[in-house]
Amino acid sequence: MFKSGYIAIIGRPNAGKSTLLNSIVDTELSIVTPKAQTTRDQVQGILTEPEGQIVFIDTPGIHQARMGGINEHMVSEAKGALDAPDLIWYLIDPSSKLAHETAVIDLLEKAPRTPLILLINKIDEVEKRKWALQVDELEKNVREALIERGILFQATRRISARKKEGTLSLLKESWNFIPVGQAFYPDSEQVSDRPTKFFVAEKIRERLFYLLGDELPYSCAVEIESFNETSQPIRIEATIYVERESQKGIVIGNQGSKIKEIGQGARQEIEKFLGEKIFLGLKVKLLRQWTQNKEGLQKAGYHASSKRRSG
Ligand SMILES: Nc1nc2c(ncn2[C@@H]2O[C@H](COP(=O)(O)OP(=O)(O)OP(=O)(O)O)[C@@H](O)[C@H]2O)c(=O)[nH]1
Ligand SMILES: [Mg+2]
Is residue 118 part of a domain? Predict the structure, then answer.
C-alpha cells in the first residue's frame, strides 16, 4: 500500500530546519546561513520512495514579529504549514531555553492537533561543548510544556542535521505517521513544488547573507527578471532590491567590487544546483521601505504560500 503525507518542520530561527530538509531530500533546496531568519517562505521538499511520498515543509523560524512587514509574512508562512500536516518535526537548538521557545509553543497550541516529534538538533555541538546536563534540562522543560498545552507530543530524538546523525532513523520512524494515500506529485523525480526561478533567487539571497554584514541582508530581496534557458550558457538577469538609498552603494561596493563578488559566488552555487553553466547579470534597485508594508512585500515578490490541500 502506497503512503502519502506531509511533515512540517517547525522551530525558532537558526535551529537547523533548512539543513534538515536538505539532508532528508539530499538536495540543497533551502538556503542555509549562520544568520537567524534566513528562510522567508515555505519550501517543500518531496521525497518519493517505494513505500510512498512524503512532502516536507521547511518554514521560516517562528519569532515575535511586528505586524505588517516581512517578519509577519515569515511567521504567517510558518503558521500556514501547521494547517494540516500528518506530523510535526519541532527542532530546537541545544543552547535554547524554554523561555525562548514560547512563541513556537504558543503557535503549536493554537494549531490543529497533530502528532509531534521534538528534535534536539546539533548534537555534535552538545558533545563538543559538554552541554549534556543543560540539554537534558531543556528537553524535559520543553516536553513538559508541550504536554501541558495539550500538544500531541510523541517522542524526543537527538540529531545532527548537518552531520546526518539520527536522521535516517527519524525518517524511518516518521513513516509510521503517514497514512495510506496517492502521491501528491506523480513525477517521482520532482523534488520541490517551487519553480527553478525561486531557487535561483534564493541562491543569490544566500550570498547576500554571507557577504553583506549583519543588518543589510534583512533589507534585501531578489527578483529574477529573466531566465533564458535556450541561450548558451543559460542567461539569467536578476535585481537585488534594497530599502534605503544608502544601501545601494554598499551592495555595489567600491568600483563594483561587492556586486562582482556576490555575482561570482551566486553563479557558482546556481551552476551547482542546475548542473549547467550560466551567465548571471545583477542589478541593484531601491524599493523604498519594502520590508515595512504589504505593498512593498508584494513588489519584492513575497506572497502567502497557497493552501496545500483542502480538508
Ligand atoms: N553544528 C551544527 N550546526 C548545524 C546543524 N544543523 C544546522 N546547523 C547550522 O545552523 C545554522 C542555521 O541553519 P539553518 O538550517 O539555516 O537554520 P534554520 O532553522 O533553517 O534557520 P531560519 O531559516 O533562519 O529559521 C547554519 O549555520 C547551519 O550550518 C547541526 O546539526 N550541527
Ligand atoms: Mg531556514
Answer: yes
Q: Is the CB of 162 under 6 A from ligand 1?
A: yes
The percent of residues above 70 in pLDDT, for the chain, comes to: 98
- Assigned domain for 265 exists: yes
Query: Residue 187 falls within a domain, yes or no?
Result: no
Q: Quick one: 62 and 107 in the same domain?
A: yes
DSSP letter (8 states) at residue 111 = S
C-alpha cell at 215: 543588518
Do residues 300 and 223 touch, judged by C-beta distance below 8 A? yes
The CATH number linked to 127 is 3.40.50.300
Ligand 1 pocket mutation pick from 28, 32, 157 by most atoms within 8 angstroms of CB: 32
Question: What is the spatial distance between Cα 22 and Cα 206, in angstroms, rounded to a whole number?
Answer: 15
Distance 40 CA to ligand 2 centre (A): 8
Per the structure, how many domains does the chain have?
2
Return the pLDDT at 206.
98
**Range of 266's domain?**
196-299
Do residues 171 and 200 both lie within one domain?
no
205 and 145 in a common domain = no
Q: How far apart are CA 228 and CA 215, in angstroms?
A: 33
238-291 residue pLDDT tens: 999 999 999 999 999 999 999 999 999 999 999 999 999 999 999 999 999 999
Measured from the CB, is residue 180 less than 6 Å from ligand 1?
A: no
Q: How confident is the model at residue 307 (pLDDT cuts 50, 70, 90)?
A: low
> Looking at the DSSP assignment, which residues form a beta bridge with residue 45?
56
- Whether residue 191 lies inside any domain: the answer is no
Of 2, 5, 9, 1, nearest in space to 161 by CA: 9
CA 233 to ligand 2 centroid distance, Å: 30
Mean pLDDT of the chain: 95
Atom 12 of ligand 1, nearest CA residue:
14
Name the residue at shortest CA distance from atom 2 of ligand 1. 122
pTM, full prediction: 0.96
